[in-house]
Write a structure and sequence with these properties.
four-stranded antiparallel sheet; disordered N terminus; 3 helices; Neuraminidase
């Protein structure tokens, strides 16, 4: 998430962390106003399976939020060509903040704390891993103010964000531990984590910096500086071959909000503005400006900007909005947090 330092001290990512708590409250009250997300918005078609050849375009998952009255979050799926749009049907309601394993077989999602998850004082959310093949899920951890998560390429580890803290846990729920306890030395929390190809290194964005830390908590280091202390979260995403990363950031107070691409081997050591400029992103209707990129298996990059999710070729060009039909409601619906689904997953 991105914001210039001059806009004030409010931590936008932390505000987003409260969404699940508000969702839980709305669910407990049993009432809502505004858009009925359960009825579907925009194109509404049944989920379709895939054969081994993946004849259709890849799936893209993202959050849809209605923010008029009680806040409602659900995960939406559409093909990259705009077909097959539908809300994802998962075992637990109010799922949000999707993250897909690099092989495309599993989905991590956050939800307001369901009755079967247990919990304790100050616990308000749960993280589940869902298997696309068996259409079943299992609890990874219960926590507070849960947002982003990532599964390692070897499937052994999960990194997730709880409030201001970046954490790691075994995918079987064992050995939950803090990697970085926030607020960071820049006064902010941590953005969307992602694993490198070695399944040991976790990359993260915080306070105008891209950092990396080992999954055991050792070796924390800075990889790239945007504007330290600027309350932007330059969240990195790897290319499918793990050779490059794409980052949404602004590099100076006069530079544009932009997506930039860097060779992973050049980090640390390169400067923010030396990255390949993929697209400038002007100020939009929300705090999402060039946020949470995801690099797809077909070479396209998805990102959130304003109230929409966009895609653009990794070689550049004109971005295309995938969510105009969803958000053309006068400003009460927003799409965010896109993630590609590699392979031939049967998205429910």
């Amino acid at each position: 998430m991105i914001r210039r330092a001059s806009s004030g001290p409010r931590d936008v990512r932390r505000a987003r962390a409260s969404w699940l708590g508000l969702v839980a409250l709305a669910a407990a009250c049993g009432s809502r106003t505004g858009l009925d997300l359960g009825a579907g918005v925009g194109p509404s078609q049944p989920a379709q399976g895939f054969d081994a050849g993946c004849p259709q375009a890849p799936w893209l998952l993202f959050d849809v939020m209605e923010h008029e009255g009680p806040i409602y979050l659900r995960i939406y799926a559409t093909h990259a060509d705009g077909t097959g749009g539908h809300f994802v049907i998962l075992p637990h309601d109010h799922a949000a903040f999707p993250s897909v394993s690099p092989d495309g077989t599993k989905l991590l999602y956050a939800t307001a704390l369901p009755p079967d998850a247990g919990g304790g004082p100050d616990v308000d959310s749960a993280l589940y891993v869902y298997d696309f093949a068996s259409h079943s899920d299992s609890l990874v951890v219960t926590t507070s103010q849960l947002t982003y998560s990532a599964l390692s390429p070897d499937g052994r580890f999960v990194s997730y964000v709880s409030g201001y803290t970046l954490r790691a846990i075994g995918s079987d729920g064992s050995n939950d531990h803090a990697l970085l306890s926030g607020p960071s030395d820049q006064g902010s929390g941590y953005g969307h984590p992602t694993f490198a190809a070695d399944s040991r290194t976790v990359l993260y964005g915080t306070g105008g910096e891209v950092g990396a830390i080992e999954v055991d908590g050792s070796g924390d280091r800075n990889l790239l500086d945007a504007i330290p202390g600027s309350f932007q979260y330059p969240n990195p995403a790897f290319s499918p071959d793990y050779q490059r990363i794409v980052v949404g950031a602004f590099c100076s107070q006069t530079s544009p909000y932009a997506l930039r691409i860097y060779a992973y081997s050049s980090l640390p050591g390169t400067t923010c503005d030396s990255g390949q400029l993929l697209v400038d992103v002007n100020d939009g209707a929300s705090f999402n400006l060039a946020n949470d990129p995801s690099w797809g298996p077909d070479g396209r990059i998805a990102y959130a900007s304003g109230k929409d999710v966009w895609i653009i070729e990794a070689t550049g060009g004109t971005p295309t909005s995938l969510t105009a039909a969803l958000t053309a409601d006068g400003g009460t619906v927003q799409a965010a947090d896109p993630v590609w689904v590699p392979g031939c997953a049967d998205v429910p």
